[in-house]
Specification:
By secondary structure, the protein is an alpha+beta fold. 39% of the residues lie in helices and 17% in strands. It has 16 helices and 15 strands.
């Protein structure tokens, strides 16, 4: 038995004919095929009489690829710069730093519209986003600790830390970040104005035929596809729900604990015949859990018309979160919704809001925990770019990666795909990259390039 962890080899400088980050080259090729760089470039105005040495749209795409590969700062773009055969003329870290500080709030708004145009192309090609089912949006906030009080726009958090409290809106079907708002750590969790701002920005990211009828003042008759938003109790406010109704957007929000809801649950405890068995996401029964609609037992006159209250109970378990009703046997949890349908099915639909935690976790694995600048606007630009990087990866997975890799986490993609090595061969005046024999995702990478070539 040998206990060594590495073979003894001679290591020398001067190697050639080998390249790294082949998967990131596929990602950049995919972005080019979608026209992402050109779309971003068209939204950034020139700052002088001459064009910059590095096209700013290309700079942002290179930084998105760097973040997708695990980069957490401008300096990490230098790893792409070391591979000119794959990535061409890559900007320096100082050029990337300047780009983040050049983008104004107005330009950032134009960049968001440019991303929306590219998103529409992706949605039109993906079976996940086609069809007539409602488009489901999930909104949630997350704390990001910053260990530097010198960063502009930070603040103390309710957990005793210090940093930012960004608000994020996701598309449930794909996990894309449709909207984001960088807020100080002490920003309110249930601020109505913030929720409505990200909702409007999220709707603006949807393809035009889906966004139709979902802006303030739009006629209900102009709705071509339903949109529903889910939120935790932070979205349980009359102002936010009224704002959703004004935009013809359905809602499902977690109910807060209050005397009226508690009294309704107390009245329902004795009505065992009215409780229906709850189901899991796969449709199988959830053991010991039951669902009931209590709309008729509460006063919902302050909520939009046709609002319903649905409550689920399940056996109390150690570590369970706060319940709507004090009980030694069950945990009670409920939500308000204006959606039609069976309470059991709506309960399973609302519980799927938990997907948002996975989406946020992916962002935290991809630069959300690191805001590298002191300037607030530069950090807002960083948030926009890292969300763009996450969306680019999700688009790549949707259109180019089948099976388990279509939903793989960032870490798995980096180790197995993005940083794949290859051998560089020159033949017939062409540069050819050959994936190393035995690399576990070689066939997957080759298939991705084939799919990229089919995008028109």
């Amino acid at each position: 038995m040998k206990s060594i962890s590495a073979r003894s080899v001679v290591v020398e400088p001067g190697g050639s004919g080998v390249v790294a980050h082949v998967g990131l080259h596929a990602l950049c090729s995919f972005a080019d095929r979608l026209g992402l760089g050109d779309s971003l470039s068209s939204a950034i105005p020139l700052r002088g009489e001459r064009s910059p040495l590095h096209d700013r749209g290309k700079v942002l795409v290179h930084q998105m690829a760097t973040i997708a590969g695990g980069g957490e700062s401008c300096a990490d773009v230098e790893y792409l710069r070391d591979e000119p055969t794959l990535f061409g003329f890559v900007p320096s870290d100082s050029t990337v730093w300047r780009t983040f500080h050049e983008i104004s709030p107005t330009t950032r708004d134009e960049l968001k519209l440019a991303v929306a145009d590219v998103r529409a192309k992706v949605w039109s090609r993906s079976s996940v986003t086609c069809g007539t089912d409602p488009v489901v949006l999930d909104v949630d906030a997350s704390l990001v600790d910053i260990h530097n009080e010198g960063k502009e726009g930070t603040g103390p958090t309710y957990k005793g830390g210090y940093g930012f409290h960004p608000l994020l809106l996701f598309a449930d079907a794909t996990g894309e970040v449709l909207a984001s708002m960088l807020r100080p750590g002490n920003a309110g969790a249930n601020t109505v104005a913030d929720h409505l701002v990200v909702l409007d920005e999220g709707v603006a990211q949807l393809p035009r035929e889906i966004a139709s009828g979902h802006r303030v003042g739009d006629d209900r008759c102009s709705v071509k596809r339903e949109v529903v938003i889910r939120s935790d109790s932070a979205g349980c406010s009359e102002g936010f729900l009224s704002g959703c109704r004004a935009r013809n957007i359905g809602f499902s929000v977690v109910a807060r604990r209050n005397a009226q809801v508690g009294a309704a649950i107390l009245d329902a405890i004795g009505m065992e015949e009215s409780w229906a068995p709850a189901v899991r996401q796969d449709g199988e029964l959830r053991e010991g859990a039951a669902v009931i609609e209590l709309t008729g037992l509460v006063d919902l006159s302050n909520f939009p018309d046709h609002t319903r209250l649905i409550v689920r109970r399940e056996p109390l378990h150690p570590g369970a979160q706060q319940s709507l009703f004090p009980s030694l046997e069950h945990r009670y949890w409920g939500f308000y919704t204006d959606c039609e349908g069976d309470p059991v099915a709506l309960d399973a639909f609302m519980r799927a809001h938990a997907h948002v935690e996975e989406h946020i976790s992916r962002l935290k694995d991809s630069g959300l925990c690191r805001f590298p600048f002191s300037d607030l606007e530069a950090n807002k630009n960083w948030l926009f770019v890292l969300c763009g990087a996450a969306d680019l990866v999700r688009w790549f997975q949707l259109l180019c990666l089948p099976g388990a890799f279509g939903i793989a986490r960032p870490k798995a993609l980096r180790w197995s795909l993005f940083h794949a090595p290859g051998r560089l061969v020159r033949s017939a005046r062409r540069e050819i990259v050959r994936i190393l024999d035995g690399w576990p995702t070689a066939d997957l990478l080759l298939g991705a390039y084939e799919r990229i070539a089919l995008i028109t």
